[in-house]
Design a protein that fits this description.
By secondary structure, this protein is α+β, with helices and mostly antiparallel strands. It folds into four domains: 11-80 and 87-117, no CATH class; 139-248, Beta-Lactamase, CATH 3.30.450.20; 262-368, Beta-Lactamase (2-Layer Sandwich), CATH 3.30.450.20; 388-489, PAS domain (Beta-Lactamase, 2-Layer Sandwich), CATH 3.30.450. Helices cover 51% and strands 21% of the residues. It has 18 helices and 15 strands. The strands form three sheets. It has a five-stranded antiparallel β-sheet, sandwiched between helices. The chain has a five-stranded antiparallel β-sheet with strand order 7-6-10-9-8, with helices on both faces. Strands 12-11-15-14-13 form a five-stranded antiparallel β-sheet. Strand 1 (140-146) and strand 2 form a beta hairpin. The longest helix is centred in the first third of the chain and has 52 residues, at 87-138. The protein is rod-shaped and about 205 Å long. The N and C termini lie far apart (161 Å). Residues 127-199, 377-431 form the PAS domain.
Length: 529
């Protein structure tokens, strides 16, 4: 920008020049002024004091008084009668005093004007500096387009907005045009033309391509000025980097898409239990349009009884700052009875005050049915395990028995209530400390993968039962069971085996005796040689 140059006259030169001019005028009009020669000089005192300040004004008073004294006291002309009674001298003195007073007051006004001008300049500079800093902080540039000459003035912030080094941005329109994304250039031109033709505010968003290939968003705003004939002569405005706003808008669009398309039912209710917002899933489930839910109380939509017994108490807790989750069965207009998982979350403003409750409802009917079916199967399996004709026990990680089926109870005589969770039960099963320690050490060495390992268990009535245990925990782990196994009572089998062994030994002994007697008889009946 070019600054206009101004020439300021030297105030002392002005004072001398003005006094000379006043002398000439006074002398020329002396017949008219007669004794009032000070009139012209008083006028130039005001002008010089206003322009040059007190010193220049005092010089003007001194020169004017000197010239006036010559006119009044020294000129002897028949055209100008001079009184000799001294009145004119007092008139000269009073005129001089008045001039000094004028100089004093005018110089004060002059000084005040200068202070005001300096203050205005300083404030203007401060405002320009603040505007520049604000433009840099907001990534905003100011432009002015002289539509008559075609000249465009850009602020320095445009270089950063267009991704250019300051020295690379020459302010020419073709440089600006080269930064615009090719797909947005035509739309930008149309937006400017439309704003000019319709005399409306220009506002348009477009993309710019930086030197590194990255794409950034800019919003342009402006307004045209027109002459008396309606012809546009100037347009001024701003260019603003809106990358952050676009990112926020994109994120908001994503959130809105998620909010609209999620299968969960989502709503926002205020502290008066009134709907403020609902998503499409909520509308579909209740067979309502937005105008039939938004602005209505919850009780009118879900039913007064459900609201009073299920919703309101939990909403009050959420409005107090608590996150509330609960499940319930509910009959919808469609899909009939469904099992719902409902969550109430406090909705807070930026100042952390609670402005409402965000309601999230998920249909978990299928999950609930699957869980119910699984529970039924687990119960059925538990009954099978409890009633199967083999012993079944299980241990937790601390070595406590947590499962003891009916066959275990029948064979040992110990009930599940006496065994499960009893930390001393192993001492009852194996009262012999040496035997118990030997068996536990052997178990720790074998681990949880063995078959047909026989333990002698002491039953409740004191009898000894031999149980053949098989541990399948490592091959078939069961959640919650650190170890589990099945056992078979082999006491009678072992007794039978012992009896058969004893009988076999007796038979072998008897057979040996028979063989010995036969051999002896054979020797007795043999003929002598």
């Amino acid at each position: 920008m070019q600054r206009a140059m101004s020439i300021r006259l030297n105030p002392y030169v002005l004072a001398i020049t003005m006094v000379a001019m006043a002398t000439f005028v006074t002398y020329w009009l002396l017949p008219i002024f007669k004794a009032e020669t000070h009139v012209v000089f008083d006028a130039i005192v005001v002008v010089v004091a206003w322009y040059g300040g007190m010193k220049a004004g005092l010089l003007t008073v001194a020169l004017s008084t000197f010239i006036n004294s010559i006119f009044i006291l020294s000129i002897d002309s028949p055209q100008v009668p001079i009184s000799s009674d001294g009145g004119e001298r007092w008139h000269l003195l009073s005129s001089t005093f008045s001039a000094l007073l004028v100089v004093f007051l005018t110089s004060k006004l002059h000084a005040a004007r200068q202070r005001v001008e300096q203050l205005g300049i300083r404030q203007m500079q401060e405002k320009e500096s603040q505007l520049h800093m604000a433009g840099q902080a907001a990534q905003m540039g100011i432009w002015d387009w002289d539509m008559v000459s075609g000249a465009i003035t850009w602020s320095v912030e445009h270089a950063a907005i267009f991704g250019l080094v300051l020295d690379e941005f020459d302010g020419k329109y073709r440089t600006f045009e080269s930064c615009i994304h090719p797909d947005d250039l035509a739309g930008l031109d149309r937006a400017v033309d439309r704003a000019i033709q319709r005399r409306m505010i220009y506002q348009h968003e477009y993309r710019v391509v930086w030197g590194d290939g990255s794409i950034h968003w800019v919003e342009g705003r402006g307004q045209a000025l027109y002459d008396a004939t309606g012809r546009p002569i100037r347009m001024s405005g701003i260019a603003l980097n809106i990358d952050r706003r676009k990112e926020a808008e994109l994120a908001l669009q994503r959130y809105e898409h998620i909010f609209a398309t999620t299968p969960d039912l989502i709503a926002l209710v205020d502290p008066t239990y009134t709907y403020q917002m609902v998503n499409q899933a909520y509308l579909r489930r209740f067979q309502k349009r937005p105008g039939e839910i938004i602005g209505y109380p919850i009780a009118e939509i879900v039913g007064k009884e459900v609201f009073e017994t299920e919703c309101k108490p939990r909403l009050d807790r959420a409005l107090a700052g608590e996150r509330v989750q609960f499940d319930l069965w509910y009959d919808f207009p469609i899909a009939k009875q469904r099992y719902l998982s409902i969550t109430y979350t406090p909705y807070r403003e930026t100042d952390r005050s609670i402005a409402g409750v965000m309601v999230s409802i998920r249909d978990i009917t299928n999950l609930q049915q699957a869980e119910t079916e699984l529970q039924q199967r687990e119960e059925h399996l538990r009954q099978i395990l409890q009633q199967m004709p083999v012993m079944l026990d299980a241990f937790d990680a601390d070595g406590n028995i947590i499962c003891w089926n009916q066959e275990c109870e029948r064979i040992t005589g110990f009930s599940a209530e006496e065994v499960v969770g009893n930390p001393s039960i192993m001492e009852l099963f194996y009262p012999g400390a040496a035997y118990r320690q030997q068996m536990m050490a052997a178990w720790a060495e074998r681990g949880n993968d063995y078959r047909n390992w026989e333990w002698d268990v002491t039953c409740k009535d004191g009898t000894i039962c031999t149980i053949s245990w098989s541990n399948l925990s490592d091959r078939f782990p069961v959640p919650g069971w650190a170890a589990w196994g099945i056992g078979v009572d082999v006491t009678e089998r072992n007794q039978n085996i012992d009896a058969l062994s004893s009988l076999n030994a007796d038979l072998e002994s008897q057979l040996a005796d028979c063989r010995a007697r036969l051999a002896k008889q054979s020797q007795q009946h043999e003929p002598p040689e």
